[in-house]
Amino acid sequence: MEIAEKNASEVKSQEPTKLKILIVEDDFPSCKIMEEYLFEYGDCTIAANGIEGVEAFRNALDAGARYDLVCLDIMMPQMDGHEALRTIRQIEHDHGIFDPSGVSVIMTTAKDRSRDMIEAFDEGCASYIVKPVDQDKLVMEMQKLGLI
């Protein structure tokens, strides 16, 4: 009996840790697709725009429940992805979190513009995916970032 309990606890410790994921996307169908792709890797929170995303990020950090991954759309009303990313990095800085220990951010966009890509990396994104986002592409980027 003792050996069986030990083996069960070893199996549990080998199970991958579930990620805490924030999806910031103003297009509901895209949001649901991203959630479906990411479901098996972690618990997803959805924000409908940059303002909601920044608020969710700040609240989680204040509660000591940091996000591991933020998937952030660039083109959104009210607060676009660039402004949201700058704000997220400032919130981390205010909490004493500096690169490379900050949250991994994957920017997504429908427009393949090099200016947006350069700006996103300058602001501290870890990866950049042009839509449509497919599961293989997303998983590959998460592997590159060492999240899975």
Number of helices: 6
Unreliable spans are none
Give the helices and strands as they follow along the chain: HEHEHEHEHEH
The end-to-end span amounts to 33 Å
Helical fraction equals: 40-55%
Just name the CATH architecture: 3-Layer(aba) Sandwich
Count of distinct structural domains: 1
Just give the CATH class. Alpha Beta
Based on Cα principal axes, name the global outline: globular
Strand order of the biggest β-sheet: 2-1-3-4-5
Number of strands: 5
Output the CATH homologous superfamily: Response regulator
Would you give the CATH topology? Rossmann fold
Derived from helix and strand composition plus strand pairing, the structural class reads: alpha/beta
Strand content: 15-25%
Based on CA atoms alone, the radius of gyration comes out at: 17 Å
Could you give a short account of the major beta sheet?
5 strands, parallel
The pLDDT mean sits at 88
What's the short version?
The protein has 6 helices and 5 strands; from the N terminus they run αβαβαβαβαβα.
Write up this protein.
The protein has 148 residues and is of the alpha/beta class. It has a single domain (18-140), classed as Rossmann fold (3-Layer(aba) Sandwich), CATH 3.40.50. The protein has helices spanning 2-14, 28-38, 50-62, 81-94, 114-123, 135-144; strands at 19-24, 42-47, 69-73, 104-109, 127-130. The radius of gyration is 17 Å and the shape is globular. The mean pLDDT is 88.
Summarize this structure as a short list of keywords or feature phrases.
Rossmann fold, 6 helices, 148 residues, alpha/beta, single chain, globular
